[in-house]
């Protein structure tokens, strides 16, 4: 089995939850993909890092992150996977949902992104709202956003591409045996 196969198995086992839920987009669904159960799991996190690095292997970027909270473990998994491979150095960053009112008052935490090529990530995305909020903040901070990558696309691809961004997902709803 490949890392992708192993990751899909874990997504199905740990993250697909049946039951009525309201998504961050405000939409109501009869099932939910709780990827924090995967991205914060001892076996899941390393797989997430390796699979997403492989997914965007042909894209040039030197920092990865997105809107807190869904993107945080994805970005750190990729940072650790890149370090383990010994290839290019990869930094991670966290985009706050709003400006910080104390300390250094930074919206983007971690190494500075100004003038750098960055990858915006998210665990799963339905409308693209969270990742596009992160992209807007990154561009305002002077970053060059090369694209967006998610573990599971729940329908955001069209909106992200309409915003002029390249988009990739490790898995679709069909891979999970679900429909939109």
UniProtKB/TrEMBL annotation:
- GO MF annotation list: glycosyltransferase activity
Domain (Phosphoribosyltransferase) spans: 41-160
If you read the UniProt record, what top EC class would you report for this enzyme, in one word? Answer: transferase
Domain of life of the native organism: Bacteria
Pfam families documented for this protein: Pribosyltran
Give the residues the record marks as binding 5-phospho-alpha-D-ribose 1-diphosphate. 96-97, 100, 102, 122-130
- Which amino acids does the record list as binding orotate? 126, 154
**EC identifiers of the protein:** 2.4.2.10
Q: So which cofactors does this thing need?
A: Mg(2+)
Q: Which keywords annotate this record?
A: Glycosyltransferase, Magnesium, Pyrimidine biosynthesis, Transferase
Q: Which reaction does it catalyse?
A: orotidine 5'-phosphate + diphosphate = orotate + 5-phospho-alpha-D-ribose 1-diphosphate
Any keyword Glycosyltransferase? yes
- The regions listed as transmembrane in this protein's record are none
Pathway(s) of this molecule? Pyrimidine metabolism; UMP biosynthesis via de novo pathway; UMP from orotate: step 1/2
**What functional role does this protein have?**
Catalyzes the transfer of a ribosyl phosphate group from 5-phosphoribose 1-diphosphate to orotate, leading to the formation of orotidine monophosphate (OMP).
Which family does the similarity line name? Answer: Belongs to the purine/pyrimidine phosphoribosyltransferase family. PyrE subfamily.
**What subunit structure does UniProt give?**
Homodimer.
Q: What is this protein called?
A: Orotate phosphoribosyltransferase
Organism expressing this protein natively: Dactylosporangium salmoneum
User: What is the name of the gene encoding this protein?
Assistant: pyrE_1
């Amino acid at each position: 089995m490949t890392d992708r196969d192993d990751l899909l198995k874990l997504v199905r086992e740990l993250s697909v939850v049946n039951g009525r839920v309201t998504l961050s987009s405000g939409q109501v669904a009869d099932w939910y993909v709780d990827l924090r159960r995967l991205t914060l799991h001892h076996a899941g996190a390393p797989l997430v890092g390796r699979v997403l690095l492989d997914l965007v292997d042909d894209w040039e970027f030197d920092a990865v992150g997105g809107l807190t909270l869904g993107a945080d473990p994805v970005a750190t998994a990729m940072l650790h996977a890149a370090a383990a491979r010994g290839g290019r150095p990869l930094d991670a960053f966290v985009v706050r949902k709003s400006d910080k009112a104390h300390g250094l008052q930074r919206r983007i935490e971690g190494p500075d992104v100004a003038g750098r090529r960055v990858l915006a990530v998210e665990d799963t995305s339905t409308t693209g709202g969270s990742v596009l909020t992160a992209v807007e903040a990154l561009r305002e901070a002077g970053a060059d956003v090369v694209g967006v990558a998610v573990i599971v696309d729940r329908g955001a691809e069209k909106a992200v591409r309409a915003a002029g961004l390249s988009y990739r997902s490790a898995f679709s709803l069909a891979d999970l045996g679900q429909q939109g």
